[in-house]
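Open question from group meeting: does this chain pack into something compact, or does most of it stay loose? Before anyone orders reagents, we agreed to write out a predicted structure and look at it together. Recording both the input and the output here so the notebook holds the full record.
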Amino acid sequence: MKQKFSPKLTLIAAYCISLFQFSPTAEALTIDQWSLKIMPLGDSNTRGKALDRAGYRDDLWALFKDNGYRVNFVGSATSENPEIVLGQNNTYVFDKEHQGHGGFAIAGVGASNAWSDLNSEIEDWLKQARPDIILLMAGTNDILFQNESPEDTVNEMILLIDKILAQIRYICLSLQFPPLTPLHLRMVLSRIRKLINTITYWQIC
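Structure tokens returned:
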């Protein structure tokens, strides 16, 4: 059984909630009047799998609801999700929308069940959903199913982030690059920071 309300989920929730006070959209509105649109983006770690049908999304949803914040998960996918999630002191109807696709690589061929990749689809997804925040967890299928170097995977991730930041101001990255050497990890973090140093609010979770 996965750990409920892990420190990492709490960090993601706190980051998203902090944007309520900064977003121009919210300046003339109260939290009760305005919902933050969040797109969970990635592969089966985002979509969910086996007994963990919603990945991290159901726990994150419960954290938001427990704290009284109105958020709206967005995306074109709704597959294999629970109807109800359990919070600390209540149960909540779950917002099933997301953009997690099992087997998807960042770019190129992923697992056998993947019909595309994130880089090919991201621009259309963003135009359709118009999220305020992206929660990005990707890279596992590139490592597992592609015969490419870590540097190639890093470059594909940078391209994906570049496409996202062309349309979205806020991004929370949960980096999934197993296995990366310390040198490659430093390269990822350095290049990401260079890309988003003009963005007001961002977080690597």
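Observations to bring back to the group:
The chain has seven helices and eight strands.
The radius of gyration is 17 Å.
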